[in-house]
Automatic annotation (TrEMBL):
Basic and acidic residues composition bias: residue spans: 135-150
Presence of keyword Hydrolase: no
Organismal lineage: Bacteria, Bacillati, Actinomycetota, Actinomycetes, Micrococcales
Signal peptide residue numbers: 1-40
Protein name (database record): Copper transport protein
C-alpha cells in the first residue's frame, strides 16, 4: 500500500496537470473569441471596371471574377452611385467563377461603390467592396485620387474582366463588419457540433469495441451519453446557421431571423452541410437504443452527420480529391474513437466506482488503451496528410492564423498523447499487476485523475478545430 509520502508527488503532478489544462483552455477560448473573421480559399481576382479606375465610357455591366466557383448570396452585388442605389440584375457565369451585375441603364458620369457577397464552395461567405469612377460628370465625382484605367477603351466597351494594375485585392473589406460576438458564436457553434458528433461516434465505437461480457451492463449508460450528444450536434448546427445569417445581415438580429436571411445562410454547400448534420443529429436522438445492437439507426445518423463534416471546411476544395476524402474520413473516425471513447471510459469509470467493480475498470481501461493508441496513430498520419494538402507553403504554418491555430492544436494533441502513453505503458500495467496481487482490489484512482485533464484538453482541441474549419491559410 502506498504511503502518504509516496502519494504526495502524484497529487502534485495532478495539480500541475489541472493548472496546465485550465491555462490551455483559457488560451484556446481567447484565440477563438478574439481571432479576426475567417475567409475561405476562394478569392476575388479581378473586377471590371477595376478598383479605383476611371472609365472614359458608360459602364453597362460590372463583372467580378473569382479564383473558384461561387454562389451569389442575397442581392450578391449592390451598386451605389451619385443618385443612390442602382438596381441591377445579377447573373452568374455557367462555370460559377464570375458574377455579372447589369444595371437597367449604363452607368454614366459619377463615382460608384460596389458591395458584393458570395458563398464559396466550402459554404463560407466572403464579401467586400470596390470603387470606380465614370467620366462625364465632374461635379459629383469624388475627389479621391484615382488610378490609371485598368482597361483600354475596347476592353471597356466589351466589359471584359481585367486584372487590377498593382492593386492588392486583400484590401477589399466590407463596409459593415458584424459584431465580433457573432463570429465567435458561429465558431463556438461549430465546436459544440463537432464535440457532440465526436462523443456520439466514439461512444458507439467504445460500446462495440471495448465493452464485452458483463461489461455490457454499462452499455445503457454509454448509449445514453450518445443519445444526448446528438442533441449537442443539433444545437451547434442551429447556432452556426444563426451566426451565419446574422453575419450576412451585418449584425441585424431582427433581419437575421427572416426566412430570406436564413435561406441565404444555407446557400450552396452550407445548406448541404447543415442539412446532413441536422438529419444525422435527429436520427441519433431517435435511434439510440439500450444496446449497441439496437442502435443501428444511431450509427446511420452518425455516418450522415459525419458526411456533413467531410463536405465542410478547407478539405472540401483540395486536390487530389480521393486522397483528401480518404484522409479526412480516417481523421474524423479515428478522432471520434479516441475522444468519444475517452468520454465513454469516464462514464464507465464512474459506474464502476459506484458499484465497487475495480477489477472490471482495469480490464476495460486496458482494452480501450489499445484502441486509443491505434486511433492516435491514425489521427497523426491523416492529420499530416491533410495539412500537407491544405498548406501551399511551409511558412504558412507560422505566418497565417490557420497555421498558428494548427500548431496550437498539434501541441495540445501531443500533450494528450503523452498522458495517454503514460497511462498505457505505466498506469495500466501497474494497476493490472496490483489487481492480480490483491485479487481485484486495485484502485482506479490514477485513471480517474488523468481522465479529467485529458477530456479538458480534448475540448481545447475541438475549440481550435472549430476555428480551423473557417480560418484562412493566406498570410
Amino acid at each position: 500500500m502506498l504511503t502518504d509520502d509516496a502519494e504526495e508527488p502524484r497529487r502534485m503532478n495532478s495539480t500541475f496537470i489541472a493548472r496546465l489544462t485550465r491555462a490551455l483552455l483559457t488560451v484556446a477560448l481567447i484565440a477563438i473569441c478574439t481571432a479576426p473573421p475567417a475567409a475561405a480559399h476562394t478569392k476575388l481576382t479581378t473586377t471590371s471596371p477595376g478598383d479605383g479606375s476611371m472609365s472614359a465610357r458608360p459602364v453597362s455591366a460590372v463583372i467580378l471574377t473569382f479564383s473558384l466557383p461561387v454562389t451569389p448570396v442575397g442581392d450578391a452585388v449592390e451598386i451605389h452611385g451619385p443618385e443612390g442605389a442602382v438596381g441591377a440584375a445579377v447573373v452568374r457565369a455557367q462555370d460559377g467563377t464570375s458574377v455579372t451585375a447589369k444595371p437597367a441603364a449604363p452607368l454614366t458620369g459619377g463615382h460608384y461603390t460596389v458591395s458584393w457577397t458570395v458563398a464559396a464552395q466550402d459554404g463560407h461567405t466572403i464579401d467586400g467592396n470596390f470603387e470606380f469612377t465614370v467620366e462625364g460628370r465632374t461635379d459629383r465625382v469624388s475627389e479621391k485620387p484615382t488610378k490609371e484605367p485598368a482597361q483600354d477603351p475596347e476592353q471597356e466597351q466589351d466589359n471584359s474582366p481585367s486584372p487590377h494594375a498593382g492593386h492588392d485585392m486583400s484590401s477589399m473589406e466590407p463596409d459593415h463588419e458584424p459584431p465580433p460576438i457573432i463570429d465567435a458564436s458561429g465558431r463556438f457553434g461549430s465546436a459544440v457540433m463537432m464535440w457532440g458528433w465526436l462523443v456520439a461516434a466514439g461512444g458507439l465505437a467504445f460500446a462495440g469495441l471495448v465493452l464485452r461480457g458483463r461489461d455490457g451492463n454499462d452499455e445503457t449508460a454509454v448509449l445514453r451519453t450518445v443519445r444526448w450528444s446528438g442533441a449537442l450536434v443539433l444545437v451547434g448546427t442551429a447556432l452556426r446557421v444563426a451566426a451565419q445569417s446574422a453575419t450576412l445581415t451585418h449584425g441585424d438580429l431582427v433581419a437575421a431571423a427572416s426566412p430570406d436571411a436564413i435561406g441565404d445562410a444555407l446557400t450552396g454547400a452550407a445548406g448541404w452541410v447543415a442539412g446532413l448534420q441536422a438529419v444525422g443529429a435527429i436520427t441519433v436522438l431517435a435511434g439510440t437504443g439500450r444496446t449497441i445492437r439496437g442502435s443501428a439507426a444511431a450509427l446511420a445518423g452518425v455516418v450522415v452527420a459525419g458526411a456533413g463534416f467531410v463536405l465542410d471546411g478547407h478539405s472540401n476544395m483540395m486536390e487530389p480529391r480521393w486522397l483528401v476524402l480518404t484522409a479526412d474520413i480516417i481523421h474524423l473516425a479515428a478522432a471520434a474513437t479516441w475522444v468519444g471513447g475517452l468520454v465513454a471510459l469516464t462514464v464507465v469509470l464512474h459506474r464502476h466506482l459506484q458499484d465497487d467493480r475495480r477489477a472490471d475498470t482495469v480490464l476495460v481501461a486496458a482494452r480501450f488503451s489499445v484502441v486509443a493508441a491505434a486511433s492516435l496513430a491514425a489521427v497523426a498520419v491523416a492529420g499530416i496528410a491533410l495539412a500537407l494538402t491544405i498548406l501551399e507553403r511551409p511558412d504558412q504554418l507560422w505566418t497565417t492564423d490557420w497555421g498558428l491555430a494548427l500548431l496550437g492544436k498539434t501541441a495540445v494533441v501531443v500533450a494528450v498523447g503523452l498522458i495517454g502513453a503514460y497511462n498505457h505503458f505505466h498506469t495500466i500495467p501497474h494497476l493490472t499487476s496490483t489487481a492480480s496481487r490483491r485479487h481485484g482490489r486495485s484502485s482506479p484512482g490514477p485513471l480517474r485523475r488523468s481522465a479529467a485533464p485529458e477530456i479538458a484538453l480534448m475540448i481545447a482541441v475541438v475549440l481550435l478545430t472549430g476555428w480551423l474549419v473557417g480560418a484562412s491559410t493566406n498570410a
